[in-house]
């Protein structure tokens, strides 16, 4: 069966994303040229401009793909537990594990806020990581174990705390020791969100 235009368009987008993603992860957005991306994908600059407008548009597509995958990974891990506090602990560990991967750390947390701008980065995060945190807070409140009313502000504070935790680990001289300290202190801080009954 002959491929449709829609099939060809999807294949072209996939080829560009698959070529760009490891380059952005390894070297960062600024050190990767559009020419080398299209060469690696076996395509032309015209294909890049047609489907993504420019390198920044392609970077956004890569970032959104990573965010969707990360959200799915965390949600799948959380589904192993029913207790909301256990689900939160699992989500924290899964997030920290994922952020040890260069593509998540560099693309999603280091380059994306600068390349896309803080507001765009935050809007995309709101559909993924922040959304999961809000869902966990809402569930904890419905089960009567959240010490405070859930709010978008509280969810944003928790998200910011997690991003800072990742950066502490990423920039530590001894990442393994830093991870131990981060998990210990995150546990102490997150425990304050729950009731003691």
Description:
The protein is mainly alpha-helical and 197 residues long. It has helices spanning 5-27, 34-41, 45-52, 55-78, 84-98, 102-116, 118-126, 129-142, 152-170, 175-191. Helix 1 (5-27) crosses helix 6 (102-116) and helix 8 crosses helix 9 (152-170). The chain is elongated. The mean pLDDT is 91.
Q: Ends: how far apart?
A: 63 Å
Order of helices and strands: HHHHHHHHHH
Classify the secondary structure makeup into a structural class: mainly alpha
The number of distinct helices, counting runs of at least 4 residues, comes to: 10
Question: What is the general shape?
Answer: elongated
Q: State the helicity in percent bands.
A: over 70%
Mean pLDDT: 91
Radius of gyration (CA) equals 19 Å
Low-confidence runs: none
Strand content: under 5%
- Describe the main β-sheet briefly: none
Count of extended strands: 0
In short:
Keywords: DNA-binding, Transcription, Transcription regulation. Pfam families: TetR_C_41, TetR_N. About 75% of the residues lie in helices and about 0% in strands.
Key features of this structure:
single chain, 197 residues, mainly alpha
Topology of this structure?
Blueprint: H1 5-27, H2 34-41, H3 45-52, H4 55-78, H5 84-98, H6 102-116, H7 118-126, H8 129-142, H9 152-170, H10 175-191
Domain HTH tetR-type: 10-70
Protein name: TetR family transcriptional regulator
DNA-binding region: 33-52
């Amino acid at each position: 069966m002959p491929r449709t235009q829609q099939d060809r368009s999807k294949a072209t987008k996939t080829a560009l994303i698959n070529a760009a993603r490891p380059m952005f992860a390894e070297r960062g957005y600024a050190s990767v040229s559009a020419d080398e991306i299209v060469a690696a994908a076996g395509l032309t600059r015209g294909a890049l401009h047609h489907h993504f407008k420019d390198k920044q548009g392609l970077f956004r597509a890569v970032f959104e793909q990573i965010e969707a995958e990360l959200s799915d990974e965390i949600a799948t891990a959380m589904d192993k537990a029913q207790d909301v506090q256990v689900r939160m602990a699992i989500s924290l560990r899964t997030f920290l594990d994922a952020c040890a991967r260069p593509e998540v750390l560099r693309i999603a947390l280091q380059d994306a806020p600068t390349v896309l701008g803080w507001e765009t980065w935050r809007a995309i995060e709101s559909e993924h990581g922040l959304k999961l945190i809000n869902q966990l807070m809402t569930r904890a409140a419905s089960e009567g174990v959240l010490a405070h009313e859930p709010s978008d502000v509280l969810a944003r504070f928790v998200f910011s705390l997690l991003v800072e935790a990742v950066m502490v680990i990423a920039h530590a001289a001894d990442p393994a020791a830093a991870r131990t300290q981060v998990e210990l202190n995150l546990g102490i801080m997150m425990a304050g969100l729950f009731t003691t009954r």
